[in-house]
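Batch 3, record 17
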Amino acid sequence: MSGRSGGPEIDQLIQLLARLPGLGPRSARRAVLHLIKKKETLMVPLASALDRAVDSVMTCQNCGNVDTISPCHICTDPKRIASGLLIVVEDVADLWALERAGIGAALYHVLGGTLSPLDGVGPEDLNINSLVQRVETGDISEIVLAVNATVDGQTTAHYITDQLQSFGVKISRLAHGVPVGGELDYLDEGTLAQALKARTNF
Amino acid sequence: MSGRSGGPEIDQLIQLLARLPGLGPRSARRAVLHLIKKKETLMVPLASALDRAVDSVMTCQNCGNVDTISPCHICTDPKRIASGLLIVVEDVADLWALERAGIGAALYHVLGGTLSPLDGVGPEDLNINSLVQRVETGDISEIVLAVNATVDGQTTAHYITDQLQSFGVKISRLAHGVPVGGELDYLDEGTLAQALKARTNF
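Prediction for the assembled complex:
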């Protein structure tokens, strides 16, 4: 019992919402009460938006993005295809983050994670074969490895670089440095050292 | 644009989820990605739970609780009716909180807020008339005013006490005191003074 006194419908809704990241039982209860209070303006639209998403959302067979068509809107955009730029990311959230940053026309490839021998994640568990195939057959001129700056992320970047070496495509990675708006005092030494090494003319 | 690159279905879902209390655009995006990843085990059940809730959830005409029937399960429970105990709360969340506390058989009355002249909330905006009617016609022997210990809450409690004075029903309020597990050092002086005044034998 989630701690309420209506029908099982409300209980079940609370339990399902509590499974979303960032929500727990308490905030799920608050969310359900809010939904009930705003039934016509929020609960009904949310119910139909979810129904539509269940029916239409799929994973792009080409790049791993989520969309309502496959190949997705990004993979079929002539401007992005013409750019020849392919950005490799760990997951869809990273793709969305880069798109929000307005980085210009680029294609993406979603790995679906990082290599992690300790967790039993090998190359065959990630979309690496499909990446190699895309580079082999497509008009890709440059690949940016936009993986996280973690040990697993960097391991994955090295592995992919090895796999793609023979195709003569340019491979780069995101710059390390001081985040915009960041204070030096709060940065770790590794980042500071990298930022100094990669200093640019003012 | 919520910052993604799929169809409008995903965008709309993010925007609606971001309107839930406790969620913002960032956590709504994370929630939607989680839903898409767990399509069969979470997104589909959540969509149908919402559909069922839209169809079935209503406000109890008697007490203001939310349930799938009206009068609700609480109002029609013979054990609760026999108790003669009516607990007045500000909103449904408070009712749920008391039920989780396992306080035993009791009826409830949900006011829907507190009197607040500054915000233009008068007695006619709350379920006070229906409370008076319930006390007038029902077998209520005791009323507990379980409103928040705020100025508005206490004002509301006084107003309700005035309205019910003529019925000769016993009216009490929740005890003030030290929260279970609470440290004295962190409590305000008002609570400490009340807790001392209402001290009990050990």
